[in-house]
Amino acid sequence: FMKGDKNVKLPILTSCCPGWVNFFETNYPDMLDVPSTAKSPQQMFGAVAKNYLANKLGIKREDMVVVSIMPCVAKKFESQREEFKENGNPDVDYSLTTRELAELIRQFNIDFKTLPVEDFDNPLGESTGAAVIFGATGGVIEAATRTAYELFTGKKLEKVDFTELRGLEGVREATVDFNGTPIKIGIAHGLSNARQLLDEVKKGNSGFHAIEVMACPGGCIGGAGQPFHHGNFDIIRKRQEAIYREDEGKPIRKSHENPYIQALYKEWLGAPCGEISHHLLHTHYFDKSKHIEIEG
User: Fold this and answer.
1) For 7-16, 141-150, 217-226, which range has the lowest pLDDT when averaged over its residues?
2) CATH number, residue 19
């Protein structure tokens, strides 16, 4: 579609939420060709770390331990999926929740006020505003839209805030103007809301170009590994507002403008969707409908 092929199958569905991935593998096995094949950020990071970074450091991937800190309990299961292992060695060895990290910090009496200020290690330490907003419902598709607009139109995107994609309604839709081409986008958080959109897609009635789905209320900021919000959406809203403020303060707000990502593609990955990048950054899905327990 980005290259002008009007016959490409649409809509494309996001695939970064493991709870959502498990849901469609279990409940919609006849639609496994609809979601994006892109791995989640956790699994992309693990694959790059254990291949590119391990090689750069001159160590075996088996001797590298990758630990991710996530707002999500489902990330634990995701990290142990067989397709994310190489000869039995997982790309991500351990996935801890933010609550578990907080508990470790308390146990070891780490006082952050006394720690020196340091940057994250590169080449995998630089992030953009687009990475930050991933945590809120609508943020993944907004991050993608910032890049897709420039790839599709060939023009520089001056206004990077797509406020029409933001909000906390369980199901919402918006149309974004790509220099005269209307792009219809659907967004859902919560799996019952996702089912509404998927049923419309299955019937062929949606008309969407892309759909973002997050399993948790509010997106990752409301994840099961986060500090408990007890269903209080004022807490979710404040987390969402904080994320957008963080995005606004970032010097780089588009994923494709991250200089370290650009260098990574130039030095090692090659072209996007090329042989190496497709092997390491993309995945496939499985029919898990037989796992549904049938009562009666």
Assistant:
1) 7-16
2) 3.40.950.10
